[in-house]
Amino acid sequence: MYTATGHLIPTPPFDFSQSLDFLGAFAPTRSEQTLAEHTLAKAIGIAGQAVVFQLTSVGDVKTPRLDYTLFSDQPLAEPVRRSAIERMRWYLSLDDDLQPFYALGQADPAFAPILQQLYGYHQVLFLTPFENACWAVLTQRTPMTIARQSKQALIEQYGVRLEVAGTPYQAFPEPARLASLNADDLAAITGNHRKATYLRALVAAFSAVDEQWLRTAPYDQVESWLRAINGIGEWSASFVLLRGLGRRERIPLAEKRLIETVSRHYGRGRALNEQEVAEIAARYGPWQGYWAHYLRASA
After folding, report:
1. Quick one: how many helices (H) and strands (E) in the chain?
2. CA-CA distance, 276 to 61, in Å (whole number)?
3. How far is CA 237 from the centre of its chain?
4. Count of domains observed in the chain
């Protein structure tokens, strides 16, 4: 076993226990990592190499620090190590400076209690936007349990794996791992030829795009790119933009549960419409995606 160690300094305030609590309740990735007090361990595939990262909090909310250990059955070359570090920082949104968001939230009587409840929580993303997009497809008109079974089958058949200290870890497959599969191969896993066709489209699209462009290009351009992929509609695109790419500029107005949650906190006993929710969100400017995520995470 090859290992590498180091530490990460999140932008304060950062409460790792909030991240762990979120992951413990997040159905799309539940059971895909191990969680313990102050510790998270999870697998990722990097250019076909299985890497398990273990993160342990050794700081506090005001002076956070995460110590990491990387494990692999292959040498951890410097590019692999850099990629793993960057992915860990991205996955846990460690570089997000929440102070401007908190200043807005503290001035909002309806939101201030949620801010207090989740203080120090940095949005936990899907580990990759490709995984997020696949999950969006798998859940279309499908019960959560069935979508989870299909996702787990993809992981077991095509994800890289590594055992660390007697615990097996598996990573969601990278696009390159699925590139040789046709729609029939994927339909055998999903039990749905339409979704298999959509997954093929996702593999092709994400194999050809620069993830850095997805993270930094103008929002409308990235949304258009996503909407052009067969199987990705309005809700799926906004979902991936927020939860796979950390694009907090806008909120998923097509999400019924978000409308219900905002209505519960701001509606004074009545259901709000999309326009009313959009007007409330606009108060948060470039932080409205964080505002929406906090509302959902507090439910």
Report:
1. 15, 7
2. 35
3. 13
4. 2
CATH of the domain at 45: 3.30.310.20
DSSP 9: -
Name which of 55, 62, 67, 53 is nearest 3 in CA terms: 53
Which of 243, 268, 293 is the last residue before a domain boundary? Answer: 243
CB-count exposure of residue 63 (10 Å: 0-12, 13-18, 19+)? exposed
Q: What is the CATH number of the domain that holds 224?
A: 1.10.340.30
Please determine, for residue 254, whether its predicted confidence score (pLDDT) is greater than 90: no
Mean pLDDT, range 194-220, rounded to an integer: 97
**CA-closest candidate to residue 73, choices 157, 142, 191, 163:** 163
**Whole-prediction pTM value?**
0.95
Same domain, 239 and 133: yes
> What is the H or E stretch that residue 40 is in?
strand 39-46
CA-closest candidate to residue 291, choices 136, 126, 98, 128: 98
Domain-embedded: residue 71: yes
Which residues have CB under 8 Å from 6's CB, separation 6+?
Answer: 67, 68, 85
pLDDT in tens, 147-201: 999 999 999 999 999 999 999 999 999 999 999 999 999 999 999 999 999 999 9
pLDDT > 90? residue 90: yes
The kind and range of the H/E element at 190 are: helix 183-190
The DSSP annotation for 239-272 comes to: HHHHHTT---SS--TT-HHHHHHHHHHHSTTS--
What is the predicted pLDDT for the residue at 95? Answer: 98
Q: What is the pLDDT of residue 299?
A: 79
- Identify the residue whose tokens are 């258009």: 224
The rounded mean pLDDT for the chain is 96
pLDDT digits (tens, 9 = 90+) for 120-136: 999 999 999 999 999 99
Domain housing 168: 129-243
